């Protein structure tokens, strides 16, 4: 593998991606955050001032005001991100700026996930086995699209960094109990202590289970999240992290249009007979050490290693009766149970330095991923003979440097470049024939970015940037390459232009409204798209598309109106408008992409009292979307109404979250095909009326 040396990474760059003024990305409470948590508030102010593009911040404390059963719940108010749970469990679909809009949405590529700045996404770019529990974070920064350069990412969707709470910056002793519809039960116990001036530790134990609102939909998750901090000296701090997650989920399977109309909560025709499930055991060790070199410079070094075991029956027996009504019984021609072990490891370096009017950040991410095991025939959820030996690997090196140059009182120029060198190696050996399928390729690119921030006034700024996007195929996509040979895929790449504004306007006495708005337009070449393989349901075929367009508007607006000396009304609305389409394609012309609604609106109107009480309605408005690339089948739009209320006091907290009050039947997640047919089993039902309660005790 040819890796770029650091001295070829080029000039300095922008500190692009992180946490904006739009802390109100989950009922935004910037002032409260700044008062309650100086460290978090300072970080938010600094990062916002460095980012000429769309970024949002999710304060995990706000997630305890409502039911957060999965990452889709947590990302509900983040504009530009379309996320939904397949059936209420941890299995979710998510897309940022049009990433992942195809049949391989199970690998959830296009968004780089990190914990404490250390990658969780594998070296080949997929998130198939690992979605981070948002309740295990102190806050998360969501950098959409090219704004993720701070993390070394150049993906279409950007990056999300989840920052771990410690005993020094969070409620170190608390108990959370949650209950709700469809058998949901959840308990989290957090214990932490500052053991001395130099040592602190925190551990969270978690158990969650759910029966589900569909048949064959039970799930159970057990987790341990721990970290230990050690202040070696005045200038050196090191923190060790450990995560263990055992997550077992039954999969209800997708339905045809007729099945959905008859009973949207039933399991798919073969989900129960094939005992579809996804069971993942995860162990992760990591360390991050920070060296304060001077008042103006800092070096961060991180290492991580993660091991997983995936057990995944996903395709039931496909039987063919070759002699028709003759004497021979139907013969199994295909079924699939994946049983693999995954190993990820990597190293991260970050150097930051302030030099006059320049704030410089340089970084390196190196990661390696290995997948070993096999594909088996599936007999009711049990292995029934090995069919394919899997021995896949990937390696990736991302180097980047960025500079924020405040060359005048109101103008800040942010610029830089990322270099990526990454390798894919897929080795699938057929047990029956011994034939080896070995698509293997190296992908290399330099990806520049330039942007600017203009401080219109003390409370208002406008920004813009022009950036290059680059994303190599995942090993899943190479395995599914349409020719099923040793051929590979090209990397997708393109240019994106983005402009926007964020700010705050005060009016009257103690009233204000805030906004964070971004508009972007991206021209993509060789976008990698897959569709469900009709000859082997549950698997996909993947190819490059010459030209596509990804454009949209992302807006987050909130306000606060005093109605008395002790109470306020606080509305919040998140609006996403999408325009994702082919651009003169020989097969699909200018068809719109499936899976993404043209617009999505999430909002709430909350009454809040100084005694900690809050209550108000919530709403979700989702436009129509296509189910296929041919644009022949439209999934209906829907509107969901809910209500939540609660009380938040110093020593305790309680909430009630009621959803889908009007009993709307709707499709939450669907697979993608070329053209929907009557027997296309691709639809998953959204959540019926439900209610959830949670209790937090701090001691």
Automatic annotation (TrEMBL):
Protein name: TonB-dependent receptor
Annotated TonB-dependent receptor plug domain residues: 50-159
Similarity remark: Belongs to the TonB-dependent receptor family.
InterPro entries registered for this protein in UniProt: Beta-barrel_TonB, Plug_dom, TonB-dep_rcpt-like
Topology versus the membrane: Multi-pass membrane protein
Protein's cellular compartments: Cell outer membrane
Primary location recorded for the protein, binned into one broad class: membrane
Domain TonB-dependent receptor-like beta-barrel: 235-661
Organism annotation: Zhongshania aquimaris
Record key words, sorted: Cell outer membrane, Ion transport, Iron, Iron transport, Membrane, Receptor, Signal, TonB box, Transmembrane, Transmembrane beta strand, Transport
